[in-house]
Amino acid sequence: MAGRAGDQTPEAVWRATAVATVQDLAGVLRQLRRSEARQRGDSPLTYRELAARTGWSYSIISEYFAGTVLAPTDRFDVLVRLLGASQAEQRALATARDRVEERGRRRQPTGRAVADVPPRQLPADVNGFTGRTAQLADLDALLTHGRPPSALVICAVTGTAGVGKTAIAVHWAHRVRGRFPDGQLYVNLRGFDPAGSPMNPAEAVRLFLDAFAVPPDRMPVSLDAQEALYRSLLADRRVLVVLDNARDAGQVRPLLPGAPGCLAVVTSRNQLTSLVAGGAHRIQLEPLPTAEALDLMTRRLGAARVAGEPDAVDTIVASCVCLPLALTVVAARAAAHPRFPLQALAAELRRSRGAGLDAFDRGDPAADVRAVFSWSYHALSVHAAGLFRLLGLHPGPDLAAAAAASLAGIPIGQVRPLLAELAGLHLIEEHSPGRYGLHDLLRAYAAELAGAHDPAAERTAAVHRMLDHYLHTAYAADRLLNPQRDPITLSPPRPDVTPEAVTDRGQAMAWFTAEHRVLLAVVERAAGARFDSHGWQLPWTLADFFHLRGHYRDLATTQSAALRAARRLGDLPGQAHTHRSLASAYDGLGRYDDARAQLEQAIGLYGELGDHTGQAHTHLNLGSVLGRQGRHRDALEHAQRALDLYRAAQRRAWQARSLDAIGWLHAQLGDHERALTYCEQALTLHQEVGDRHGEAETWDSLGYAHHHLGRHQQAVACYQHAVDLYRDLGDRFNEAGTLSNLGDTHHAAGNPGSARVAWQGALAILDELGHTDACEVRAKLRS
């Protein structure tokens, strides 16, 4: 770096020669960062400062320094120059970076973010599973002497619909789960779901990262980086991964572990030929052998009943073409009527053959089970049959009892017995308490029955009730997540809709988490059915949850759909709100130019509407995006414009937010005295309106400004106020960040003991959260 003796080899040059992995390279970057600070006689640049100077997101910078991901060439070059690397160092580090990229070695650093309790995602085991002895033995053979394999093993379980692929995969996974102590992952990829589109691999990767409790602010931005983190989390671990109902090999490949000791089981109706050609074992399931089909009936109905009417049982088995799904449905019907002769049931089943609807290809054994479905459907009570048909209108993948009540337009007390009746006949499954799903063949059958028997107006009304249920529940939950958000106006729910009662923030987060996949499917259904008011308002209610959880791709997908709906309606406020939310998604994804384009459109629309508060919000958002791009003077203009508009609208809480933003931007421009002036005004307003989180942020900004003015005593006091507030609010991550800053100030003031106490407090929190910033704090403690 500048100022080093010319006859000495730059430290980063000789360190670069030893670089072999992305973690090694991250260590060199951290060393550069400390060396640059020593040259300035100050503390190292924080990730927040680096984000402000580069325009990159805070999280991606932390990933570069922690060695979670490898910085792209252009970003890497900018970063090492910003850290003061000499030309010789830049060349050596560029060569080292290229060498790491060629080796393709991305491993997780020390302090990886893994849940305290390993994920246990397997669905409930199949009650009374029988048969498949040979196939279970084949699966057992994948384990070496009863232990997990020494190399990654992939098994593809293939076969027609209803043949029991999921059942055997889940049953076997439960049998061997003790051999995979680091977790069992499960996802239904919905490859052939008739009511929705297959799951994108990006969604599944994110679900697995959530299962390992990766914090949202720690989540990589790009899909490639998320896949790398997923594989890193599984490295040196024994994890069983069940990928159910895959469409094709392309949907599966990003989800496969990359480490020995892990095993992946994939189920699909497709043959997955390319996966098998690549070394995967294949187990092809056919309909049950007759003996195993009879054993299934015996287990369900009892040996005496089956032995008493062997001809009738043979007829039932033949009618079900030995498919486990059909046999289970029929056995449930027979068990529900223990006094009915099996011969009468067999005769009724024979009469049903040929009465099914033509939804499946001829020649597929699954087509024949439609007669079984028809037989069981006609055994339902009138109200249960009506509910079953309506369930075909729900997009899935499952639903709660309250949603079923709104779909049917009846009180929840009336819907529970109907759900129990359907579950008793195995037409639906209660896979977790109060949540129900149905096989995709049954969903398709139910939808066709609805189309054949329920008038279009009634089907439309049911879909309307369902959309109202989710919209009004989500709106109430969102108000608890962000009470200061400007509300929108919803139309009242239709009669007989009962939104769920969500009374506090914890319940709101729990509801959104449970309904996450359902809500994505409902947004898609609203668009397909042209319910355009729901089509933009429901995504509006999801924006805060997706932002808090870091689901920026889901945010972008739903807001894009919302924008199309608002445009079809000609709803200008809806378009303006949606442009802002879409900008938030692009901001989270690091697509800053796209975010600015959305915000500029929003400003224009708010101008047409004369909505000065909306314009103010958008100017503040623009300032934030520009600040991340390092354009602090441009950002300052927008923050000042936001303040003027908030003052005109007398929005005092938002005035405080904009004053803090202005102060922070002045600090980034080096004018720390002016930063103090604005932040002190912000602090007063925050305290007057009772915005404790805004107050904590402003105390932190004040500490930053005092620190850079050399006023260490004042900086310590400000940082301590922020720490106390964050601790009271339960904001662990920001508490850790401020403790780290507090330690820097103690260190600069010549108080190493106090610095160590503060850094140790920050490190304890960051290790608990599994955050990569722990590496930075650990380095401070070492040095």
Detail the topology: elements first, then pairings.
Layout: H1 11-16, H2 22-40, H3 47-54, H4 58-66, H5 73-82, H6 87-103, H7 133-140, E1 153-158, H8 165-176, E2 184-188, H9 201-211, H10 223-234, E3 240-246, H11 249-252, E4 263-268, H12 273-277, E5 281-284, H13 290-301, H14 303-308, H15 310-319, H16 324-336, H17 342-352, H18 365-377, H19 382-391, E6 399-400, H20 401-408, H21 412-424, E7 429-432, E8 435-437, H22 440-453, H23 456-481, H24 505-528, H25 532-549, H26 552-569, H27 572-588, H28 592-609, H29 612-628, H30 632-649, H31 652-668, H32 672-689, H33 692-708, H34 712-729, H35 732-748, H36 752-769, H37 773-782
Parallel strand pairs: 1-4, 1-5, 2-3, 3-4
Antiparallel strand pairs: 6-8, 7-8
What is the CATH class name of the domain at 133-284? Alpha Beta
- Return the structural class: mainly alpha
Q: Share of helix among residues? A: 55-70%
CATH names the topology of the domain at 133-284 as Rossmann fold
Cross-sheet strand order for the largest sheet: 2-3-4-1-5
The CATH architecture name of the domain at 133-284 reads: 3-Layer(aba) Sandwich
Shape: globular
Sheet-strand content, in percent, reads under 5%
Largest sheet: 5 strands, parallel
Contiguous uncertain segments of 5+ residues: 1-9, 105-114, 354-363
Count of individual helical segments: 37
Radius of gyration over all CA atoms, rounded: 30 Å
Mean pLDDT: 85
